[in-house]
Amino acid sequence: MTIREEQVLERIERARGRRARLRDDTIVLAHGSGGKATRTLVDAVFREAFANPVLDRMDDSARFAVNGVDLAFTTDSYVVSPLFFPGGDIGDLAVNGTVNDLAVAGATPLHLSAGFILEEGFPVESLRHITESMRAAAEAAGVDIVTGDTKVVQRGKADGCYISTSGVGVVTDPPSGALRPGDAVLVTGPIGEHGVTIMLARGELDLEADLASDTAPLGCLLAELRDACPGAVRRMRDATRGGVATVLNEIAADAGLAIAVDEGAVPVRPAVRGACELLGIDPMYVACEGRAVVVVAPEAEAAALAALRAHPLGAGAAVIAHVKDDPSGLVLLKTAFGGTRIVDLLAGDPLPRIC
Amino acid sequence: MTIREEQVLERIERARGRRARLRDDTIVLAHGSGGKATRTLVDAVFREAFANPVLDRMDDSARFAVNGVDLAFTTDSYVVSPLFFPGGDIGDLAVNGTVNDLAVAGATPLHLSAGFILEEGFPVESLRHITESMRAAAEAAGVDIVTGDTKVVQRGKADGCYISTSGVGVVTDPPSGALRPGDAVLVTGPIGEHGVTIMLARGELDLEADLASDTAPLGCLLAELRDACPGAVRRMRDATRGGVATVLNEIAADAGLAIAVDEGAVPVRPAVRGACELLGIDPMYVACEGRAVVVVAPEAEAAALAALRAHPLGAGAAVIAHVKDDPSGLVLLKTAFGGTRIVDLLAGDPLPRIC
Q1: Cα–Cα distance between A345 and A243 in angstroms, integer?
Q2: Domain A184-342 -> CATH class
Q3: What range(s) does the PurM-like N-terminal domain occupy (chains A, B) (predicted)?
Q4: N or C end: fewer C-beta atoms under 10 angstroms in chain A?
């Protein structure tokens, strides 16, 4: 590392140490991006108001015990546009997203709730398609939708249909959470397919590609992984808004360690790469809805990769990075051209309403 | 009862026995009213798709056991307009509503989730007010908000802020559910205040009244009730959308018994009564957000009333009805003028976006 590089890293570390300050007076789309702006809003408004030890862990799911039973509990609201897209719709997206938030916590998803905000004039036939997708997704994930709510707002006060799903699961095999240098970082399949599919489905680009959303329930895949390398799974995250880059940043920051990514090892389908180049965005930041990032102990790397690849939803799994001592909290990318650059959290929002 | 009356009742019973058929092609505001149209939509679309034994009970909360622990789980989406109104805002409404759905199931509310759908341009200061209300409401109800989500949609795709809350509680003392003729039906306070407050806050009526929403957490009040008459509580419901009339209809239908209401015994504040007369609506159908309907065994009537009245949130409690054998599933109202009329579910929606 040159002296200049060291100074840059030092400045970044200092900046990250500062408490996030919310400078905006009004909500902007970037606050929903999953990147820096979201984090700032969450820290400055929600965590400030609701502070409690469970929330403060800021995991995909909240974890708590009730009468000795270790539960996971999570929620997500879905505002994806368009509602229907190749590979899925807002319905299976909502079920899979909630199931996956429970699965990456090492929980077995059990019961889901679904709240609908419908716009006056929304076709009942479309609603039936959505609920049928939800039913099929719930069946595939082995969960029941046990409670719900329906609200209707006037025309122009929503965009067809928004869905909020929450889920309860029982924690059976939580990841240890304790990363160490040398740990291997894997993705369970090619990245960015959901985000690019949504962009193309909006028709804003004059581009056609044979792409479909990767939306899928990850419970079984991650259970196979845990069985294949018991006790060696350090961390699991599903790479939704903000993509793999955002998840890696959060993992590195939580652990106070570095993650060194080998760009050439990151699986990206040619159609995704091509669309991203046209859009001027990095596939590392594009949302997946059926891909997880997992960190395993060094000795479990081969077994983890084999277990993932043996499952249909993990056929394209790859080792993409390793954990390093420093620079603490940062994600470095070794580019295909031999250089190294920092992969930071995005400030803005390349793709609004992706989920 | 005259022969004509008997014929009318018979016709109503036959109509109720028929399976609800959804005739609408598109969603209308009435589908969010909590009345007949909501029930038809829920039956024809959601229950049809998601059918499972827990959902099919159609309680305010879903109940299920996880490793032997009896849990309650509920969700609600809030789209109230305006967001701020005398006595509360969308924030405490969302927390209290979810807490109350757990409390009426005989559960101790424990943990809440909160999902926010924000419109681009929404003032951060307003969001802070809302989260502060949620914090205070959660504190008052003894629950933590442990997980959440934030989405942002473009201008014109929401109405400032929508909130979906879900809650998990542990079931400690569930009502028996088994109603019997002679049981007493109580409300925990004057009805219709929330709904009328929202109507007046919209400024659509040139009317001022010294009214505030009754939004409040009912956990403590209902725990006191259960302590005062152990084993004698048959049923508890919070009277939100559709008001006390809708809740009574659902209780009567579930039990296959009749409920005979004494109109003169129903507590309604003069300002609510006056506003309802101007609006041409019956206060029995107007939403409360801090009132419950409870059914207790005949011998517990006096103790239940005394226990409710001893608590600040139940000071205006009253016995309003008794359970009768027949006409099965119907709610009858003995009017102040000595007549009797049937109180049916409303087909339409007198007050959209009330919660």
Answers
A1: 10
A2: alpha beta
A3: 59-171
A4: N
